[in-house]
Amino acid sequence: MTFERIKPQKGSEIVMTHMKEQIQAGSYLPGSKLPTVDQLAVSFEVGRSTIREAMSALKAMGWVDIRHGGGTFVSKTLPSGDGLDNGGDLFYQTESFQEVLEVRKFIEAGCASLAAERRTEDDLQLLAQAIQEMEAAIDNESLSEQADIRFHLSIAKASHNSLFLSMMESLTDRLQESMKESRRLWFFAERASVKLLIQEHKDIYEAIKDQDAKLAEERVMQHILKVDRVVQKLGAKA
Questions:
Q1: H/E segment holding residue 74
Q2: Whole-structure pTM over 0.70, yes or no?
Q3: What burial letters (b/e) apply to 86-99, b meaning 16+ CB within 10 Å?
Q4: Model confidence pLDDT, tens digit, residues 166-201
Q5: Number of neighbours of residue 186 by Cβ within 10 angstroms
Q6: pLDDT tens track for 1-20
Q7: What's the rounded Cα separation, in Å, for the pair 183 and 167?
Q8: What is the spatial distance between Cα 114 and Cα 175, in angstroms, rounded to a whole number?
Q9: Rounded distance between C-alpha atoms, residue 78 and residue 223, angstroms
Q10: Rounded Cα–Cα distance for residues 69 and 71 (Å)
Q11: Dihedral of alpha carbons 124, 129, 132, 138, sign
């Protein structure tokens, strides 16, 4: 008889599962504030880093909303599935999402390269404005997502290639959904904050501003590849 190898759970996975079950059971209602990191660390008898990792995973799956400086809240609209628990469940259409990422990689990298060569002061102003809007909306995920999309569309506009811009605009609906899921996965994979995500956008902006076409292309490609790698990993587990 052969037995399937059982992978031991990490502390953060145990905390994540327990907290999700508590939310599902109604112990924490949608929109309600969760105990602090310190309080949860004491309750579970684990370190604060373990709690933060668990909360990052729950945020990536859509169960909680982490407000910088304001605490962690149960999402007002809870996901219908189990998120990342069983591998690829976060994406009910993983292949479709993968296709959008593949298109984004090549279109946006090309846009960034041309934008670095052709950008005008007006183009730079639009890019900078989108970043400022992301910073101003750091505690408002919806507005931050919209500013994120404007940043990427502004890069296409700065390429001064009408076909590139048309392709990006034609993908607006798919792009919006892709951005939303990309951001969630980026936070989960990097265990990172909104500030670090904004810094990546600033790095792309600086490369375009400095008219470094190769660097701009590389930074956009790496920005999207981070999410692509996580999607492939989840797909392999599914």
A1: strand 71-74
A2: no
A3: eebbbbeebeebbe
A4: 888 777 666 666 666 666 666 655 555 677 888 999
A5: 19
A6: 454 444 455 677 888 889 99
A7: 21
A8: 20
A9: 28
A10: 6
A11: negative
